[in-house]
Predict the structure of ABC transporter ATP-binding protein.
Amino acid sequence: MSDAGAPPVQARGLVKQYDDVTAVAGVDLTVERGDVYGYLGPNGAGKTTVLRMLLGLIRPTSGEARLFGRDPLVEGARALDGVAGFVEAPRFYPYLSGRKNLEMLAALDGHGAAGRIDAALDIVEMADRQKHRVGGYSHGMRQRLGVAAALLRDPKLLLLDEPATGLDPAGMRDMRALVARLSSEGTTVLLSSHLMPEVEELCNRVAIVRTGRIVYEGDITSLRARAGSHWRLRTTEDERARRVVEAQRGITAVAHDPDTPSAPGALRFEGEEAAVGELSIALVEAGLGLLELTPVRATLEDVFFTLTEDGAAVPPSSPADSDAVAA
Ligand SMILES: Nc1ncnc2c1ncn2[C@@H]1O[C@H](COP(=O)(O)OP(=O)(O)OP(=O)(O)O)[C@@H](O)[C@H]1O
């Protein structure tokens, strides 16, 4: 049953097992109204599989998904009221024009979709190419036509699987502008991506996934705060500098700085600004010349790689249910 206040997307304990491959290993996910939610992970992390389960295209091995409170496996097409998007690349008849493809989709969809074709083509800036055969479209134009097809449903929720992947820089910029525009007009968006800069630019919330499991979920601002920072120091005398740094109150995690190969004696450490200020005085008082003392802030890209690369601390995968229904 639909619930007027239910979030656009809610998943609890989603698991998808393919023989010995756990594609999705227990995903909890809530997308609230107005979110642009990034489902971010490297290739093979299970992004497409999650989107397929959310749309009811495949059956989870265990767990459940709701769209506006409706279960796509129980309510079928009705659960997809107000929901649109594409999983992997959108597909069209290549020998028909973009417009003809949209007309066919609109005829299947009903609900006034035919009346929205012109507006949808305008929004994705494809009006001038609508009469051309899709077979001659660039990848970016096909992606935009995919979004136009989704807009025919007048969606309150858009699910987009890697919408900018494979696009050239201009195509990426156009796609990002399009998503930002749809969001500003009130559409909730869930998009998958393997590109942190894209998610950082577009999304207010993010789930970072690795081998089917969420390793971070929350808003981008908190993720940025978590990125942390350290300091880099170069002086005229490496060994003595290290002793002064290690003796300084408030300074921790002192180590050689591997990011400065041209200066093998460079140090890195952590500390509040006040302690670093005192350290700089102590260094000068010890007769050391300061060549560099720089705060180094980790980027979100760094955090993404730390969370998703092999060896990152992730709880072990739980065995998936055995009563799988093959999709
Ligand atoms: N139908 C299937 N049968 C067997 N294994 C599958 C199937 N679909 C996906 N997998 C496996 O599940 C894992 C997750 O795949 P999925 O396509 O969801 O990842 P993804 O994050 O979307 O990656 P990509 O960005 O490369 O598409 C992969 O190891 C994949 O090989």
About this structure: The longest helix spans residues 169-184. The radius of gyration is 25 Å. Confidence is low (pLDDT under 50) at residues 313-327. The pocket of adenosine-5'-triphosphate is lined by residues 18, 21, 23, 41, 43-49, 194 (CB under 6 Å).
